[in-house]
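Notes from the 1:1 (GR / supervisor)

We went over the backlog. Supervisor wanted to see one worked example end to end before approving the batch request, so GR pasted a single chain during the call. The sequence is below; no edits were made to it. Supervisor asked that the structure be written out right there so they could see what the output format looks like.
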Amino acid sequence: MSQIAELIHSSVADDRRDARLYERYRDTLDLPVAWNDTLDTLVAHRSVRAYLPDALPEGTVELLVAAAQSAASSSNLQPWSVIAVEDPARKARLALLAGDQKQIYQAPLFLLWLVDLQRLTGIGEALSAPTVGLRYLESFLLGAVDTSLAAQSAVVALESIGLGSCYIGGIRNRPAEVAAELGLPPNVFALFGLTVGHPDPDRPASVKPRLPQEAVLFRETYGAGDNGLALAAYDHRLRGFQREQGMIERDWTEQATQRVGHDHLARSGRHVLRDILHALGFGLE
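Structure output shown during the call:
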């Protein structure tokens, strides 16, 4: 590549970087780094809720699992599993259990990501080795962290080949019924779902702006200062996004406080999640 061509290529990459970062924050972010396709995929992430009916390429599920298994795993315990659901009838039943979300019906693939401590329990039984540590809350947290890392690696992989996805936390609304539908043994919990498919170009998803970095990035110790200005700026930017999308305009600070309130959790059934986890075999000691 000639020097002139290199300069042009670098300029195009810088322009794409600046555009991606502005889209993510709705503000300029001076980040003088060389841009590449991996960074572009990560920063351009969006939740896709409208899919074409087209089938996925052969080998897609296996590719996503390979990417998921390439994520970090604490002590290499690999305490997760995933169930690929493509049967329309089963997807419909799961959709009803997860708040009747339309993207579950539309997407050709619905992945259920599982905290799976049963595999380690079975190994312990086979080797006559104690597995009492699996009863502790730490083991469940470890499983949840590893499951989330695995799923996010799969999301990056699928987006890199032009597919879209959306996490479905609503799968935790009725975990006992979900466990029955999926035939889950004790010590296995559906942490979240993930719809996967070809994004519908007629109903494109948009990049939702995130909090300013000064609200989430601290150095050396936790920032105890007042971030009211940063939150107010974010409320303003998010309202602009909502206006563009034809959504009801609401401040993020209002939305967030309502979302973490008891009423919302009670409506979704998640306020009794600890009791349900106990019933599913998790000790959480």
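Supervisor's comment: The longest strand covers residues 188-197.
Batch request approved.
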